[in-house]
Each structure stands twice: as structure tokens, then as C-alpha cells.
Design goal:
single chain, 342 residues, Rossmann fold, six-stranded parallel β-sheet, 36% helix, glycosyltransferase, ADP-heptose-lipopolysaccharide heptosyltransferase activity, transferase
Length: 342
């Protein structure tokens, strides 16, 4: 989800720089919300688990796209097997393409176990802009990008918020404790003592964000310990959830999709990093070191050990996450919210 959302600043920059050029953007239907409010952008929701599954499904998708418009160029911002097949099909009918350079070599050098080459790599948003440049469209994505307001969800969000007693006079903090891989998640059992500290320090409204069934069960158990907290996960459409996120005073999260959604909504974030590292190019867009909590790589030299957090810990103890204390996270979260610590 996060890598798709990060394309939004580039699409916005394109529509502003080239208002007379249309884009047909192919992505999974559930991600259409990230793009459908931009002018001159047609979003095609691909069904890769159904009618567009496999080679035959991609041929069907190709034929459907050709019926929509006569394309001048294909921009491959993903570089995977599916996009490669679609590019090849378009090439057969004379449509050229430009493909993203994911920087795999330098990412491997940054994350290998020995002799790491440590340097800050190009951000994914900048890589997306580069592939548009290769296609003939020079872009400068805004560091202050925010998703346009999702006005169609106002009633849905208002109805949800009215079910709870919420004051706009105190900070609203989103907490998204999950990520795709264990190596990117701060121990969940630390959130209860963290909430104890936050509630003890300041009046605050806390919203829980999450995803799958197991995550919902854990969040519900945590909410039962803190009934004043509000469970958002599974309650709202994606657009309404984004509308709520943009109203937060801050988001505490992992290196995750929710981190990108919050940063792209213009919300201050505090993200906890473990096996991965912002230098690999997936940091919060438009935010700096104030948005990062991590054990420095010169102290824990095995970091980063992975680009995506999908590799097992070489040490076997996840020290990169376990060494980050509840007190440190609480202090940084309160600083983010502008709460003066006594």
C-alpha cells in the first residue's frame, strides 16, 4: 500500500505541470482512492486475483486498456512481472515505455551483512519522478504534498466521530502499531505501558489504526484496557480514514503503510524503525529526523539488514526494536504533540 501511495505526489506534480495530458493509472481497485481526485487522471482498478489473473488476465487487461485510449507511452513505476508483461504487449503495438530504476544494487550494498556501503539513497518518490522524466515529463514533486480533501466522506466520518465523546481542544494522536513484517514492529506488549504514560502526562484522544483480523483482535484487547481510546481499524472506508488522519495532531507508527498515509496527509509522524532504515529510500516523505525513532547504525552495526523487513534477524534478538524503550517513545511522542514535559 505504501509504495502505491507514494506515487501520489508525482501524479499531482504531473497534473499541475502538464494539465493537457491525461493519465490512465492502473492499480488495484482498493488503491484508486489515492489518485481519483486529481484532474485528468483515469484510474483503472485491476483485478489481479480475478479477471486479470495470470497471463491470460493480463492480455485481457491490455485489450481493455487499448479500448480506453490511444497511449503515447507506458510508464512502469513498479517493475514487476505483471508490469513487464503489459509493457511487452504495448511494445508489440508500437507504444514505447520507461521503467523505474529501483536501485537494487545500492540497496543490496546498504543492507548486506558485511562491508555495508552506508549512504542516503534516492527516495521512492524521487525514483518515481525520474521514470516520468525518462518518459519525457520533467517533474518536481512537492515536499509539502497533502492528499486533497475527501469531501464525499464527510458524513461517514462525522457519524463515526459522533459515536464517541471527543474534544477538539486536546491533541488527537493516531497509533498504528503494525507493519507487514515482524522485523519492523515494536513489541506490541509495550503499547499498554506507553498509553499509561501518555494518558498520565496529558489529556489526549488516541485512535487505533490497523488492518487484518489478528491485528483487530489485538487492538480490541488493548482498547478494553483503555476504553477511552477509539478503534478506527475496520470501521471506516479508506477515504474516510484518510480524512480522519489529516485531522490528527500526530501519528505514532512503524515503517508501514500508515506512516506513508499520515506523512502524505501532512500530519507530523513519529515512526519506529527496526530492521529497515530511512536511508533505503522509504522514509516519510517531506519529514526529517524528527519523525524517526531508531537505534543508530553506528551503535547497532547490523542495521539495516533488509530493505523491506522481510529477512530474519541475524542476531536472533531483534535488538533494533527491543532496545527502544517505552520512555523514549513516550517522550518523543509528547514532543511531537507539543506537550511540555514537566
Amino acid at each position: 500500500m505504501g509504495d502505491v501511495a507514494l506515487l501520489a505526489p508525482v501524479v499531482q506534480a504531473f497534473t499541475q505541470r502538464y494539465p493537457d495530458v491525461g493519465i490512465t493509472l492502473v492499480t488495484r481497485a482498493k488503491f484508486a482512492v489515492f489518485f481519483e481526485q486529481f484532474p485528468n487522471v483515469r484510474v483503472v482498478g485491476a483485478d489481479f486475483d480475478g479477471r486479470h489473473k495470470g497471463f491470460g488476465g493480463l492480455v485481457r487487461l491490455f485489450n481493455e486498456l487499448r479500448q480506453l485510449a490511444s497511449f503515447e507511452v507506458v510508464v512502469d513505476a513498479h517493475q514487476n512481472l505483471r508490469s513487464g508483461v503489459l509493457k511487452s504487449l504495448f511494445r508489440l503495438v508500437g507504444v514505447p515505455s520507461a521503467t523505474i530504476d529501483k536501485g537494487r544494487k545500492e540497496k543490496k550494498e546498504l543492507t548486506r551483512k558485511e562491508n555495508k556501503v552506508r549512504r542516503k539513497l534516492m527516495h521512492s518518490v524521487e525514483r518515481y519522478a525520474k521514470v516520468f522524466d525518462r518518459a519525457g515529463f520533467t517533474l518536481q514533486p512537492s515536499q509539502t504534498f497533502q492528499f486533497p480533501p475527501f469531501t464525499s466522506t464527510e458524513n461517514e466520518l462525522t457519524t463515526f466521530l459522533n459515536r464517541h465523546t471527543i474534544s477538539s481542544a486536546i491533541p488527537w494522536l493516531g497509533i498504528a502499531p503494525f507493519a507487514q513484517h515482524e522485523q519492523k514492529m515494536w513489541p506490541f506488549e509495550r503499547f499498554a505501558p506507553l498509553l499509561d504514560q501518555l494518558y498520565a502526562k496529558t489529556p489526549i484522544t488516541i485512535f487505533f489504526f490497523g488492518g487484518g483480523e489478528s491485528e483487530l483482535a489485538q487492538l480490541e484487547a488493548l482498547r478494553q484496557q483503555f476504553p477511552q481510546a477509539i478503534l478506527v481499524a475496520g470501521k471506516l472506508s479508506m477515504a474516510a480514514e484518510l480524512s480522519l488522519i489529516r485531522q490528527l495532531n500526530g501519528m505514532l507508527c512503524m515503517d508501514s503503510g500508515n506512516m506513508h498515509l499520515a506523512s502524505l496527509s501532512g500530519v507530523p509522524i513519529l515512526s519506529i524503525w527496526g530492521a529497515t532504515h530511512p536511508d533505503a529510500g522509504f522514509g516519510p516523505w517531506g519529514q526529517g529526523s524528527e519523525a524517526i525513532v531508531q537505534i543508530p547504525a553506528d551503535i547497532l552495526t547490523c542495521r539495516p539488514c533488509s530493505v523491506f523487513g522481510n529477512k530474519p534477524c541475524w542476531r536472533g534478538d531483534l535488538a533494533c526494536l527491543n532496545a527502544i524503550s517505552v520512555e523514549a517513545v513516550a517522550e518523543r511522542a509528547l514532543e511531537m504533540l507539543g506537550v511540555k514535559i514537566q
